[in-house]
Amino acid sequence: MHEWALSDGMVRAAHKIKMERGLKEVVSITVVLGEVQDIAPDIFTEIFDEVKRQQDGFEGTKLVLEREPAEFRCHQCGEAFHFDRGLLPHEISENIHFVPETLRVYIRCPACQSEDFEIVKGRGIYIKEIVGETGDGLDADTGDVAEGRDAR
Amino acid sequence: MNLNLDPRPYAVAARLASVRRTIAVSGFKGGVGKSSVASLLALASTDCGRKTGLLDLDFSGASCHLILGVSPGPGAAFPDEIEGLRPPEAHGVRFMSLAFFTQDRAVHLRGKEVADVVMELLAVTNWGELDVLYLDMPPGISDAALEVMRLMPDIEVVGVLTPSVLSRSLAFRALRFSEQSGVKTAGVIENFADDAAEGVDTAEGFKVLARLPYDEGFEAALGDVARLRQTKPYRVLGKAAI
C-alpha cells in the first residue's frame, strides 16, 4: 500500500525523537490526517501495527488519529473554500490521494474559477504529538515530573 | 505543544537505500534537450544490463513519458501500491512522473507546492534495488532543484548544455553554485555539438562526458523507443555508459 511508505516515515521520525529524548519506549503517537490526502484510518492503523515492529521501543505504542478538514484560499480573488470529495470520480480521488497537489488540476475556486489556489489546511499527514516513557520519571523537556512521561 | 512534524523526509532515505547512484540531469537553460538526454541515458543504461530508474522532476514541463512513449493514467501505465508506489517499467526503465497523477494535464505549482511534490514522490516511490537512478531536473536552480539537493545530498549532477554561449555561461555558473553547496558534478554533456569542439575533454574545468551530434531524425523518433535507439545521440550515450 502507498500508506506503508508514509507510516514507515512516521515510525522513523518517532524513532529519531525517541533517541534524542532518551525515551525507553513510545507510549503513543498522535497523527493528523488531512482531508485532501484522504488516508483511511483503519488501513493506516493496520499498517502502523506492522511497521512499528521494525523499531525497538514501539511494541506497545498506541496510534491516535485526528482528522483535519481541508481549507483552501484562492490566490486570485481571496475566496476561502472547501471541497466535497464525494463528488470526485474515483480515479481523480486516487490521484489526489497519491499526490495532494494534483487537486489543483481537478478543482477550481467556486468564486472566480481559478485553479491557482493554496491548500491552507488538511493537505497530508503530520505528527502532532509523541508521548514516551523516560524510565526515571523525568520529563526531559520541561524538567517537570510527568508521571514518567515525556510529551512533545 | 503541536510538533507539526512531517514524516516524509524520514522516508526518503529509506526509499533510496538500495539505489547505488543517483544522477541529476540538469539543463539550467530551457530547450537544451535535457529531458531527451535523461531519457536516453536511462535507456542506454538499462540496455547495458543495469537496473535503472528515471524520475521526471520537471513538473511544469514533464515530457519523459512522451519521449519514452508512455501513456500515463489508470488503465494504462500506472504505479502499483507495493510498500509505497512501485513505478511501472517503460522498456526496462522503472519510470516515475507526476504525469501519472495529472492525467497528462498541465499542473501549475507555486514554490512550497513544488517542494511538497518533490518530497512526496521521493518519500513514497519504492524503487527497489537500482544501479542508477536518473533525475530529469527542472531547468535552472529552482525550488525543486534545491529540495532535491537538500533531500539527496549524494546526487551527482550531469549538466546538459549546447554550444550557445548563453547555455554554457548559465550551466557553468549553476554547476559552480551546486559544487559550492557540496553537490558533486559528474561532468557535462554537450548537446547539438559542433565539430569544432571535437577532442576537447574539459569545459571550464568540468569533464565532458559526451558530445551528442544533431540528428535530424530525432524529432520523428520521439515516443518510439526502437527508433530512438537508432539515433546518433543514443549511440554516443550507449558507448559513454554514464
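qc> The helical segments of chain A are 2-21, 41-51, 90-98, 103-106.
qc> done
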